[in-house]
Structures are given as structure tokens and as C-alpha cells.
């Protein structure tokens, strides 16, 4: 059973009942949000996407699935509430990853929020749909997107697209329930005895998978050591193409941030209790819960990747470790080498927070000094 939302004021209530709509002018797609509270304590966001243009629009499907992306901004009494869902490493998007909206067409999606955001505390919550991505819309003027195409010159000056709604408010009295312990655990747990030299395995990893993981971890260690060595031997004023290709123009602050990130990644590989889970059957490379260090869930693309080189097993481990809040707290702003290169040019401040940018710097293919 669903009840109407409760807010602080008539204005907030009106916003919640009517929804809040904001147009993304460059693509003429509107997004609106309504909130619903339920007697079992759940809070749902009903999101409607509307193509206001007179031509077809293609929206990246990842941003219509809460379980797969951080697509909402949620605050409680003005303080942002952390997203506790998974962060994935994917290949760059292809044609099949886009949803088509015909001219004037609308699409509605319902998202249950309390499994990914903590609504257990009383307060005034504000929710908005808020997405930033280089590949959010498929642009008809660009070449077809291909996960193996990393040098498309027409993308070199691309900007990150934004699609967001106005905020909708709801007063929550407090659920008396906490987030699932698995999503908030400080450390992963592993089956007793299913560990090799401090690296543990869950999800029924077979012996071949365990050997592949340990070999990939060794490759990741070498990549992390190489990255730390480079950053220690250079500076913001002497950064070479290896740095600027993936992180853009170098300032002292940004360079130091990248250095701190790789020190933490290297420390995680060398000193932290890593756990790898083999149960994921998705087509992606891997995912983690950022507030659940240091457990990495490996998916199908991981097993078919090379041990080193671009989008490798070793690089995937670097990517995923960088997501942990206890390590570098990176996000997935863009995927793929082409997107990462474009982001470095258009927005270096976002590039230093992008997980794939860290991976490609560490993999260093093609090799750059």
C-alpha cells in the first residue's frame, strides 16, 4: 500500500505531488521526479523521461537502472546521503546500450531508494535525478560507439552531459531500520580457509579462477608500483604525456590528488585483506560497493580480458580498488579510453576522480614515458 508523501510545507508538498521537471536544453529531454512512501517504510522515486524534441533521442540505459548506477542526489536536512549501491567497470557503451525515445515519447521508471540510501533517520529528505556522463546521449553526428575504438577525433573536445530534475522533498519520521549489514560492513568476510597468502575468495571460485585472480593481482601490483614510481619521479611542472593523456593539464593540487590515490591503491594491494567474488554473471568486468572494502565482484568480461594491457584483468583490479571510499573514492564519469581522453581535455578536475582514467594511466598502453 502506498501513502502520499509528507513534507514541511505546502510548497514542498505541491512539488512532490506535481513532480519537478527540468529540461536538458542540448537534447530536449525532460526528466521529472515524484516520491512515494509506503507503509513498509520504503521510499520510491517515480521518474519520467520525456523527449520534447521533434526527432529521436537515444539515452544510455545504464542511467535508468538504480542498481547499476548512482543516478540520484539524496540529502537529509541539507547533508548528502551516501549511495551504497555497486560501482561497475564496463566496456565503453555500444549501440545496444541505448534506449530510444521517439519524438514526444515518455518513459516512466520506478526506483526503490531505501535499499541504496539510508532513510532510517528522521529528517527532511530531498531527492533529485542527477546524472553526469560523457556518453549520456548518443549523438547522431558522432561515429558509432565501439568499445575497441579509442581514438575517435570527433570526440576530442566533447563535454560531459548533464541530465537532472528539480529536487522533491519528503519528511521521514524515521524507519527504525538500518541498511542491510552487507552493504555497510566495514570489512568483507570470506569462507574459512578459502584464502591464499592473504587473498580470499568467495562465490565458488574454481581453481582456475583463483590462479587467474592471483596472476591478475600480481599484474595490478606491478602497475601500481610503476604508477607510484612515475608520480614520485615527476611533478606537476614536469608531468609528461603519460599523465596529461589521462588526467589533463597538471596543477599542483590535482597532481597531488592523483599521487595520493595511487599511494592508497598500492597500499591496498600490498597490505589490505582483499577478497574476490566469482559469482557475478553480468557482462561487465567487475563491481564493488564503495563502503565495503576490500571486496571485488568479478564478472564475465574480466575472465575474457588479457592479464595486462588496455582493459585488462590487472587494470580492472586497479579500477575497482580506486572506487573504495577507504582508498580513492573515484566515480565512473566516463568509460573507455576515448571517453577518458576526452574528459582529460574538457575537465581535468573530473578526470582525476574517474576510475577508468586511473586504470588507463596504470596500464599505460600504448606505452608513454
Record the SSE blueprint:
Elements: E1 2-3, H1 10-18, E2 20-24, E3 29-38, E4 43-51, E5 57-60, E6 72-76, E7 79-80, E8 87-89, E9 98-101, E10 106-112, E11 123-133, E12 161-164, E13 168-172, H2 181-184, E14 195-196, E15 199-202, H3 207-233, H4 241-247, H5 252-271, E16 275-277, E17 286-288, E18 295-298, H6 300-304, H7 313-323, H8 337-346, H9 348-351, H10 355-363
Parallel strand pairs: 15-16, 16-18
Antiparallel strand pairs: 1-3, 2-3, 3-4, 4-10, 5-9, 6-7, 6-11, 8-17, 11-12, 11-13, 14-15, 17-18
Question: Any low-confidence stretches, pLDDT <50, length ≥5?
Answer: 1-26, 141-158, 176-193
Beta percentage is: 15-25%
How would a textbook summarize the main sheet? 6 strands, mixed
DSSP, total strands: 18
Structural class: alpha+beta
Q: Calculate Rg over CA atoms.
A: 21 Å
Strand order of the largest sheet: 8-17-18-16-15-14
Q: What series of H and E elements makes up the topology?
A: EHEEEEEEEEEEEEHEEHHHEEEHHHHH
Q: What's the total helix number?
A: 10
Shape: globular
Distance between the termini: 61 Å
Helix content: 25-40%
Mean pLDDT: 82
